[in-house]
């Protein structure tokens, strides 16, 4: 049995995925540039924009080079992996788990739960959980100092990654079939 199933049941429309990725990329660009230019915050602005630029390049690849209208299970895994890693790096550069946008790290895995095979989705969920755990303990501080409140109250600090992981597992276990039937 192949690790990545190639089935008509485990693919999704490329144009929909590209549109969703553009929305995410534009949101990332707006957030990073707004914080840097308008809030005058000091963080790794250049690296953050390079990471976003890599997302733009991968989306342009999907538009101009990847000719199929549907993304197979394997192709979708690779692009969702890029999305998860890109978000993980951006969150690392901007506060890790204390960044208010950390919830967006769940989106690629939740999206995969409704469109991809069980194995592929399980891999993406596992990777997302690992990144959430890494971002809990390893990150660069937020551009504005909100971290001290989180570190002084461990209950709230550790409740963030715990809630993200519980939500991710919930979507994986209970919503997979629900998305298909709706």
Fold and architecture overview:
A two-stranded antiparallel sheet has the order 1-2. The longest helix has 25 residues, at 14-38. The protein is mainly α. It has helices at 14-38, 45-64, 73-93, 107-115, 118-137, 147-152, 154-174, 176-181, and strands at residues 12-13, 70-71. It has one domain (12-181). The chain contains eight helices and two strands; from the N terminus they run E-H-H-E-H-H-H-H-H-H. The protein is flat. Helix 5 packs antiparallel against helix 7 (154-174).
Helix content: over 70%
Total domain count: 1
What does the largest sheet look like? 2 strands, antiparallel
| Strand numbers in spatial order across the main sheet | 1-2
Q: How confident is the prediction overall: mean pLDDT?
A: 84
Which word captures the global form?
A: flat
Low-confidence stretches: 3-7, 178-182
Instruction: Quickly give the structural class.
Output: mainly alpha
Count of helical stretches: 8
Q: How are the SSEs placed, and which strands pair?
A:
Elements: E1 12-13, H1 14-38, H2 45-64, E2 70-71, H3 73-93, H4 107-115, H5 118-137, H6 147-152, H7 154-174, H8 176-181
Antiparallel strand pairs: 1-2
In brief:
The chain has eight helices and two strands.
What descriptive keywords fit this protein?
182 residues, mainly alpha, two-stranded antiparallel sheet, 8 helices, 2 strands
């Amino acid at each position: 049995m192949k690790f990545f199933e190639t089935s008509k049941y485990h693919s999704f429309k490329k144009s929909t995925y590209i549109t969703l990725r553009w929305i995410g990329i534009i949101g990332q660009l707006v957030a990073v540039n707004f914080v840097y230019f308008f809030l005058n915050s000091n963080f790794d602005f250049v690296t953050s924009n390079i990471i976003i630029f890599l997302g733009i390049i991968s989306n342009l690849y999907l538009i101009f080079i990847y000719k199929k209208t549907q993304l197979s299970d394997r192709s979708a895994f690779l692009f969702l992996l890029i999305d998860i890693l890109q978000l993980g790096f951006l969150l690392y550069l901007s506060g890790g788990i204390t960044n208010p946008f950390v919830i967006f790290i769940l989106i690629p895995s939740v999206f995969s739960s409704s469109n991809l095979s069980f194995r592929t989705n399980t891999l993406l969920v596992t990777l997302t959980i690992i990144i959430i755990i890494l971002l809990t303990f390893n990150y660069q501080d937020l551009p504005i100092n909100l971290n001290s409140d989180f570190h002084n109250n461990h209950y709230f600090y550790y409740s963030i990654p715990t809630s993200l992981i519980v939500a991710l597992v919930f979507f994986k276990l209970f919503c997979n079939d629900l998305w298909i039937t709706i």
